[in-house]
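Intended use. Records like the one below are meant for learning the mapping from a protein sequence to its folded structure. Do not use them to infer anything beyond what is encoded.
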Amino acid sequence: MSACPTFLIQLSLLFSLLWSAIVAVCCFILLPYPGNVIGGCVGIVFFALSVCYAVVIWKRVPFASANLHTGIIAIKTNAGCILVAYSMVLLSIGYSLLWMTAVVGVYDITEGANNNGMNNTNSTQEEYNLGWGYLFLLLLAYFW
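Structure written out for the chain above:
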């Protein structure tokens, strides 16, 4: 990666162009259904935006490659950053699993309290008042 950072950045820009062109062509030609015309138009819009972005950014590729090369050297000299990054990813996966368990628990408790343990198919919407306050606090705890 440190041997050719300029090539990698240019390749990623060209890949973005190619991918949006492939999406537009697939929507227009390979899947000719009426709903895919909208997808083809969206593909053309993203292709045009990708072309504009690539044209504007192409002259800044040497600066970006110098930044990439500097970052790679910094990571190589301080390998502890990699250990910290992977441990944070593992911790965030564990916290996400714990958070999802809490959300399911709050949902089950508030739904069970609203239904009083019975499944009634003739129930109205007001019987399904979830604990929105609890769910808001859980969302706050997850994203804060």
